[in-house]
Amino acid sequence: MKILVLGGAGYIGSHTVSELVDAGEEVVIADNLETGHIEAVNPKAKFYEGDIRNREFVDSIFDNEKIDAVIHFAANSLVGESMTNPLKYYDNNLYGTKVLLESMVAHGVDKIVFSSTAATYGEPESIPILETDKTEPTNPYGETKLSMEKMMKWTGVAHGLRYVALRYFNACGADKSGEIGEAHSPETHLIPLILQVPNGQRESVSIFGTDYDTKDGTCVRDYIHVTDLAQAHILAVKYLAKGGESDVFNLGNGVGFTVKEVIETARKVTGHPIPAVESPRRGGDPAKLIASSEKAKKILGWKPEHASLEEIIESAWKWHKNHPNGYAK
Ligand code: UFG
How much is the pLDDT for 92? Predict the structure, then answer.
């Protein structure tokens, strides 16, 4: 199959491309390199630099390549930034997807796998979270991702396009090659921030809130290895290629770890004391987010292979130790 990966130079996108290439698929990447990295573009993929809001650019890819399916990662994804600059999210995430879907319909490309998020649920009503639970996002990031899901649904009803939305929980870890990994600027995610301490880039890590209703008072999250997420995209493309119906799937390990447990595991992995400073809560953080991924297991045949937190942090550490400044020289 020839697969177009939008946002294939980003964190989850580049890991998915790597797994697709290893599986022998033909891959075309498009990325505007705003948050993606040219160094993360897989040399075995064909690369187009450009923005999905540019209809001519998107049309030119579908005109030049005979694309069987699209995997769509090209979006902004910072919760905090979305609160202060919501229209950026409506423009890139929603308008970008609108242009993409128009072009797909015009070119008869009818399969899309889309990176959605646990942020579509908002404050969960029960744990673990099921796909049928209520979706009431508490920030524009989650709101635009949910709207992107809906846009695909209604485009499907009108034009026969089929989609799979994958709602990730906390993506983390890095590829086994050590060549690609997580590199955000600014970095806001817990594991990379923790690893900046043993890397000599910060003195300590902050714990945002110690008074949550959890076993040690710190937030609980479901950490899922990026390579396991990547594999789910491949399974989702195959599912659609076999005629599967449009659907939404959670992707997580189904196990929650507190912030303190994550820091403790990182101490074990790195052998560094990693001082932690107890700090006030960060706005908008739900106490607990844990996925039920039973549906993805049953319907897509997905099975996380790197479920241990220690293994996840080891893979992240391998990347960050050798690339303390991400892809920057
Ligand atoms: N945290 C700290 N200290 C830090 C950074 C984070 O204590 O320096 C805590 C957060 O408060 C949170 C946990 O660590 O409780 C994980 O935080 P991340 O920022 O790593 O991840 P989030 O759970 O906030 O975000 C993830 C995804 C988002 C998605 C969101 C859904 O990265 O894309 O889950 O709620 F939107």
Answer: 97
pLDDT (mean) for 167-180: 96
Ligand 1 pocket test target in 168, 282, 289 with most atoms within 8 Å of CB:
282
Q: If you measure from the C-alpha of residue 190 to the centroid of ligand 1, how many angstroms do you get, rounded to a whole number?
A: 6
Cβ-proximal residues to 3 (8 Å cutoff; 6+ apart), any chain: 20, 25, 26, 27, 28, 67, 68, 69, 70, 71, 237
Q: Which residue type is seen at 131? A: E
Tokens of 119: 């942020």
Q: Is 141 a residue of the active site? A: yes
Q: What's the pLDDT tens digit per position in 233-265? A: 999 999 999 999 999 999 999 999 999 999 999
Instruction: Check if 118 has its Cβ closer than 6 Å to any atom of ligand 1.
Output: yes
Tell whether ligand 1 has an atom less than 6 A from the beta carbon of residue 79. yes
Cα separation, 115 vs 168, in Å, equals: 7
Torsion of CA 142, 76, 51, 252, to 10 degrees: -70
Which 3 state secondary structure label does DSSP give 215? coil
pLDDT of residue 152: 98
Helix ranges restricted to H, the chain = 11-22, 55-64, 79-84, 86-89, 96-107, 140-159, 190-195, 226-241, 259-270, 294-295, 309-322
Does the pLDDT value for residue 165 go beyond 90? yes
Closest atom of ligand 1 to 142 CA is: 36
Q: DSSP code of 14?
A: H
Query: What global pTM score does this model have?
Result: 0.97
Q: Answer yes or no: is the C-beta of 291 below 6 A from any ligand 1 atom.
A: no
